[in-house]
Amino acid sequence: MAMANAAVAGGSAGTAGLAATGLPERTPGWTLPQAYFNDPEIYRRDLERVWKTGWLFAGHTCEIPSTGDYFLVELDTESVIVIRGERGSLHALHNVCRHRGSILCADPCGHVSKLVCPYHQWAYDYDGRLLAWRGMQPDLDKADFPLARVALRETGGLIFINLSPKPSSFDAAEACFGPLAKPQGFDRARVARVADYLVKANWKVVWENNRECYHCNVNHPQYIKANFDHFNADDTTPRIREEISSVVARSEARWAKEGLAPSHTDTGMTRFPDAAGGIWFSANRTPLVEGWVSETMDGKQVAPLMGDYPDAEVGTLRMRALPNFWNHSSCDHGVSTRLLPMGPQLTAIRVWWLVAGTAVEGRDYDLEKLMPFWQLTSEQDWLICERQQKGINSSAYTPGPYSTFKEYNVEGFVQWYLDMIR
Amino acid sequence: MAMANAAVAGGSAGTAGLAATGLPERTPGWTLPQAYFNDPEIYRRDLERVWKTGWLFAGHTCEIPSTGDYFLVELDTESVIVIRGERGSLHALHNVCRHRGSILCADPCGHVSKLVCPYHQWAYDYDGRLLAWRGMQPDLDKADFPLARVALRETGGLIFINLSPKPSSFDAAEACFGPLAKPQGFDRARVARVADYLVKANWKVVWENNRECYHCNVNHPQYIKANFDHFNADDTTPRIREEISSVVARSEARWAKEGLAPSHTDTGMTRFPDAAGGIWFSANRTPLVEGWVSETMDGKQVAPLMGDYPDAEVGTLRMRALPNFWNHSSCDHGVSTRLLPMGPQLTAIRVWWLVAGTAVEGRDYDLEKLMPFWQLTSEQDWLICERQQKGINSSAYTPGPYSTFKEYNVEGFVQWYLDMIR
Amino acid sequence: MAMANAAVAGGSAGTAGLAATGLPERTPGWTLPQAYFNDPEIYRRDLERVWKTGWLFAGHTCEIPSTGDYFLVELDTESVIVIRGERGSLHALHNVCRHRGSILCADPCGHVSKLVCPYHQWAYDYDGRLLAWRGMQPDLDKADFPLARVALRETGGLIFINLSPKPSSFDAAEACFGPLAKPQGFDRARVARVADYLVKANWKVVWENNRECYHCNVNHPQYIKANFDHFNADDTTPRIREEISSVVARSEARWAKEGLAPSHTDTGMTRFPDAAGGIWFSANRTPLVEGWVSETMDGKQVAPLMGDYPDAEVGTLRMRALPNFWNHSSCDHGVSTRLLPMGPQLTAIRVWWLVAGTAVEGRDYDLEKLMPFWQLTSEQDWLICERQQKGINSSAYTPGPYSTFKEYNVEGFVQWYLDMIR
């Protein structure tokens, strides 16, 4: 066990250069040292190197259908307004007046005709341009005081923002998400319900939990009924292999003609992320188990078909983007999850349930049938994360080994993360 | 906009020497950089250089009419007992026993026959002298263990304390406040009600809000009905100028013979503070708008005349002292406001409503009519302050320009503050 | 009074070497400087030098009678499982899985058949040995991943643990506690009730309070009726001396034949700790006042006799161990108190009431009669501690002198403490 704490002689792709940054060394294949999960300095570094450089999932276009509709995205001390402008345009702006610094919007979402500061009524256009500032001296020029803009990209009804002044390209992510998301119809959806959580765990604890299904058997009794990804190379029995082959074959036959062919056709989780390739996003379509058409408690459809789906047997669409987004969508509803860091050991998590935009609650769907599958599965995970964070804080915590069968994606996440902050 | 963040070549009265102290530079005429509002080290410096050197408003003499009456003043980790001693004397003492350090008084106000420590009953006189200490060895001398004294001055019924071992002179402040406060009769008043607030904002945010009426039009619908100071050089119309001239002329005619002549006779706020002159206190009398005799919801008198006032038409008395006091008083009631810092982003604020000492609630006045004007105006401001603090905490906050028409007193406050902590 | 803050020329047993450590100097016979009570760095040092080297009281053997019964001990960020293994064995293990670091047990006490991590079901034996880890690669060896063990010793039904990898000897403490605790029958007792408190005071404030009865006269009206230790050399009158001699003589006559002779036979508290001798534990038997057989509100027996006691007139057994334990036991019940630090100004305190294992609530005893004496006395002390902490935090706090008559044990505690952290 000496290896767990030893410096790695000669380094490796996963750790080379960590020592030079003053960050604790990690042994490849093993969990991160404690400081990565609770040190305020490393948390500051995470904010600068990950959260202020990466593309962050903000929300859905269907949440702000009309000009002047907005919602806020708040992480740590940042507050960003995502707003629908004229002619369908979308803008992201820092929620900070250029005069005395007051926030402009206090409500988490709403509708405005202009962005007017509640303090002295400086008024900004939807794109951040300063329109009016009663009482200011004439030698100042309004053009010098726009709201600070935040980069924004939309694809398939999903809105991403980027706090960096020089954001990396979003094009490859759009090419990945767009075609798969389009038939789901997020742009024509409506939000059936939102649940907000404050989870007492570092954001990386939440991701590590998300990146393996090693914990699913005991912790997620609902989830494992519907899916194949808790089986891995070490425990996929011939019977399981036969089952997945059968549903894949049937899915391929049906979906190919609709352009909905499954792209993940094995047990186990699809490989993501790929630190070596710099891949922080991915999406795929995968079948559910025989007899299940939706991720609901009994596998039955619970709401009208969404988007362009011809029938219910379309498996599930899955999307994910680091550092803060994943989505599981069935024929009749989609579930988006967004993480936002609020402190070294605190993560704000929002879960959305979306249905077809024309669906009416009580008539076309009931929340009692729509929500439990992912509400239970999500809350099971948050509890796990808080227990893990508590143990990590102990002086007795030492890095442990990842299962090469089951935690390959956790290792991938850690490599991606270390590349980001190095 | 490069100017907002640029270092000031050559310096200025407002910023010269800031760099030498390690404090962030400020551009004159622009708001302070973020660190002044949330950095714990600058907060510590504020405590040492401002709060532990300045004269702090503590409360009113009428709150402790009898020997042994006391109230506590608590800021950050300090606790001070303000107590009425023998023959009308007033004392301020640190609320810390010289034995093991226990606080002596736990209740925020009350009456004691001696100051007896609840732990081992060491007993002190009202002036802090140690009177008794059962069980201590005879080679120690009680005279060596008085309570730590805090400087105290009273003027016109207002009590100020100073935590410095070598307090600056209070004489000029007394000369300013005394004659104007005397006719209001604070020394013969009674407290009708107290409201306590914990505002999530740096204390300077609260002062900057107080030092301009640029925000009044939209935020203070009650206040602007009664007053002229939300009009400034850029927006005082001939009609407004005529109105104020008319009420001033009438006031001068009436009040001169009573020694109550208005001293602020223009629209806009009186200039305060004056950093160059070292003026941290000021007071003036100013007329209300035609038809208003009191700062109440409809301008009508709601309680018996206070002090020496001959009739209701005495305009308003206004007093202010940095870093923690302001008061607005009408013919029938006075409202005092006291700030006390509790953290870098937390300020404890108390507002008092005072009426004539002989007034009886229910018979002579009703809280429902007495309180709303200043309760609403105060709470409108606290909300503004919390929104401003939130925006300032964002990485997108950058200093903005003050209106030379409307925020001259905010600039004056910032200059005074920077002089204090430099 | 210059002495209170002066550096001690030449040093002394109590302070020599403090300056070399960077810790604030203390004047012998005077209270500690402020930083010892609220500085986060000194708190970290207390954890390392005191709490992670000393033997800590954990609980009672009777709380975990059967194989698989456990309870948690949590201090600061540490969590320790104390568990009953096979054949009566007892084990203490860090509550941290060797895989991803999750805590194993989330409930504060309970029963398990194995220690199974709720995350991925790694399963450990009662002694921490890893038994099973489904899904891990075969090149890893389970023997390399036991739970981190914590030293544990039991004596007379009392369980102590030690977080140090090289714990100091417990033998002398066992020799002290064992013979005195045995007749009380803690090993055959049952817990009638537990009360948990979070006291806003540094742990040393709580101990200093415990180490003198100077505060008892006014603060503990119940306690002083039953005991002699609030009298000291300066105030033990001839009448009091006669009283204690009388009860001691009678006690000696009765108890000698039972092996229960009193070992503390004077007024005042027994001397403890002894820094020079390195003594961090002590126990003694002492008489109660005439007419009292139990520390209850009226001195009457309120539950069946415990352990081996032949009758009710056995005075009280008292045990104490630094840094976290004291116990007062009468013929019919025992009361244990345990401190655990949760922050620089926060201490978790648990108080247990124990009775004979065969006693049945409602039939043999009532909580209404069993609890008040020590519940009141304890809560009186916690209030004192919070008031002292508040005063110590003031800038006006300066060290004060201990009474040589009444606070000799507080001085002893401080000397012991400074020896530990130096």
Largest sheet of chain A, in brief, is:
7 strands, antiparallel
Number of strands of chain A: 16
Main β-sheet, spatial strand arrangement of chain A: 1-10-9-4-3-2-5
Uncertain spans of chain A: 1-16
Q: Radius of gyration of chain A from the CA trace?
A: 23 Å
**Residue-averaged pLDDT of chain A, rounded?**
93
Shape of chain A: globular
Number of helices of chain A: 11
* Greatest interface (CB-CB under 8 A), with counts per chain: A-C, 29 and 29 residues
The run of helices and strands of chain A is: HHHEEEEEEEEEEHEHHHHEEEEEHHH
Straight-line distance between termini of chain A = 26 Å
Helix content of chain A: 10-25%
Strand percentage of chain A lies at 15-25%
What class do helices, strands and sheet pairing of chain A give?
alpha+beta
Oligomer: homotrimer
Describe it for me?
3 copies of one chain form a homotrimer. Chain A has 422 residues and is α+β, with helices and mostly antiparallel strands. In chain A, the strands form 3 sheets. Chain A has a 7-stranded antiparallel sheet. In chain A, strand 9 and strand 10 form a beta hairpin. The longest helix of chain A is centred in the last third of the chain and has 21 residues. The radius of gyration of chain A is 23 Å and the shape is globular. The relative contact order of chain A is 0.16. Chains A and C meet through helix 6 and helix 10 of A and loops of C.
